Each structure stands twice: as structure tokens, then as C-alpha cells.
Amino acid sequence: MRNKLSYLFFLLFLFCSVPYLLTVVLSGKEEAKPVDFQTHTSGYTVTVSGKPMDLESYLLGVLPTQISMDDEKEALKAQAVILRTDIIRRMGDKKNISQDSLPYKHESDDNLQEKLGEQKYKISDQLRKQAVGETTGEVMTYEGKYIQPYFHGISVGTTLSAKEWFGKEIPYLQEKDSLKDVESSEYMTGIPVTYGQVVTQLKKEKKISLSVEEAKKSIRIKEKTGNGYVKKVQVGKYVMTGEAWAKCFQLNSTNFYLEPYDGKLRMVALGKGLGLGLSQYGANELAKDGKGYKKILKYYYTGIQITKMSDQ
């Protein structure tokens, strides 16, 4: 009787173990366990409202503010690696940084749930935990140093190279085709603005004083890149950067043009953002085509390595 029981237990063990063993053998590795963000410790923290929060948990509250959670999972994972890399880079030799020193907004769980509603929050919560959890500790480096992972919402069909924008070579920031971006419903935005409104806004935001007639005669784009990203705008005797102009008039992109239109000034922006690094729209399209997050990142950032923080 004992031998029969032993034999039955042996068969039961094989029945339960074989599928797992086959999975490990075929995949070459054991499937990663979900991260418990309540107990996980990365060794890096961000101080939020006076309290240190583990970096990985902090990313859960930042990711939904930087990318649409309706995007493909692999695009979300790429964004998680971008954010982690940038935060670690900004820490320098330290292992802590204040939320106030970062350019990212952090949303608490309560705020997210209130904004999204219970059902949508549950879906979003699962997605962000997968994106952060499945890339835990992963960062991008170039020749052993953390990269500055610029990203933007929508390109103009190609991304900008660092050489064209900054005037200096940054090897991992090269021009890349992102052709599907032009199909975005948000690719082109803009409306006519009266010159009176332009003058008022310039005085309010930039302390620049000029008359309506001066504005009509002098406002023009002074310098731009080959594919239209504005570097300088002439405003009377003043010169503004393209970024400052776009921010002043809440344009979606630094790729814009200005033209007189029916007695007004028409400002039309193409794409969304600065145009450097990864295009979120393009990354999402690559994810739809079956590309994994590592391939997406290595496409937009030339020659980078994806490593663990612990290896640095």
C-alpha cells in the first residue's frame, strides 16, 4: 500500500512539475515574479512631501502623468525605463533626490483613482505595475554612463539629432525616421491669434513691450533646423528661443511656423514636443507591430546598452 501511495505522489509531482520545467527550458529562464511594491527596495529613493519613497514605487505615480496608459504595454515599459534612467542620472553620486528637483509630476493613488474612476483606475494600476515591475532596475547607458533620455509626444516624421539642435554631437541622439507620426490626429494644431493678443501675451509672460504695428512688421522666425524646429524668433529688437515662444503661446511643439492670416498671426505647430530622442507615438506604433520595449529603445537611442542599476 505504501509503495502505491509513493508511486501516486511521484506521478502527481511529475504532472505538476513537467509544464513548469518545459517552460523554463524552452524560455531559457524562470518567469519573473511580480514585484511587491509595498516591500521592494531598490536602494534609491525620491523624497515626496518630506517622506522618502522607493524609486520603483515613485515611478508608479509618475508614469501615468508622462504617457497615455491606453498605449501598448511595450511602449509603457519603454517609458518606464526612460523615466528611471533620467531620475538616476539626475541623482548623480547620491541615491536620493527631492521631487521638487525633478521635472515630473507625481500623482498619489488616491488622486489617480479620483480622476479615473474605480474601474479605469484598476486597469491603469495593473498596467503601470506591469510596466514598472517588468523593467525593475533597468536603465540605459552609453559607454558606461547614464544617457540623457530626451523624449517627445509626436515627431514630424523624423526625430532631431543632437548635432542639428545643440550644435554638438551626442552619439545616442541621432535623427531617426518615425514616419507614422504624421498620421496622428494631433499632428497639426494651431489657430489665428490677433496681434493685440500677441502683444499682451509677450508683455505678460516675457516683459517684452512693443506696439501692434511693431509686432506686425517684426515678428518672424529667425533660425530653424532643416526639418522645421525653431531655434530663434525675432520680436522687435528682441530675440526669443523657439522653446520660449512655444511655451509663451502654449504651442504643442517647437516645430511651428508663423504667418499673417486675415489680419491676424497664425501659429501652426507640427508634432508634439522638442523632437529629440524617443517619439511616444512612434514607439506605440512599433509596439503595435510587435516590437519589444528594448528594441524600441535601441531604435530611438543609437548604440545604447540596457543594464541593471545594480551593475553600474
Strand content: 15-25%
- SSE topology string: HEEHHEHHEEEHEHHEEEHEEEHHE
Q: How many β-strand runs?
A: 14
N- to C-terminal distance: 58 Å
Largest sheet: 3 strands, mixed
Radius of gyration: 25 Å
Record the strand order, biggest sheet. 2-1-3
Overall morphology: globular
Describe this structure in words.
The radius of gyration is 25 Å and the shape is globular. Helix 7 (195-206) packs across helix 8 (212-218). By secondary structure, the chain is α+β, with helices and mostly antiparallel strands. The longest helix is centred in the N-terminal third of the chain and has 26 residues, at 2-27. It has eleven helices and 14 strands.
Short key terms for the protein model shown above:
single chain; 312 residues; alpha+beta; three-stranded mixed β-sheet; three-stranded antiparallel β-sheet; 19% strand; globular; SpoIID/LytB domain-containing protein; SpoIID/LytB_N; SpoIID/LytB
